[in-house]
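Fold it.
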Amino acid sequence: MKRHIPTFEQFVLEATDADGFNPATASQEDVKVAEIKSVEELIPGKEYILTIDGNSTPDMMYAGVTDGYHIFNEEDHNAEPKTFTDEELAKIVADNGVTQVNM
């Protein structure tokens, strides 16, 4: 009995998952979903791009609110968390400074 063992390329090309992710066509670039219009739209565990005073910081994971501070951690945990009060984050959101991305 002869069995067909796919090559690496065949395996990767057939590896599209239920969400449509295909590693053969994937890129490292984040796909922007939408600018957040209110602080209430933030979802813990989701990735965002923060733009403050014209400086963008990609790969920021929203951790939620602790002791009245909204916390964003860098995806790779190499940087200090960014924390904002309700008022600070509301201003950043009003300035279109928080954009959700697909991971």
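Residues 28-102 form one domain.
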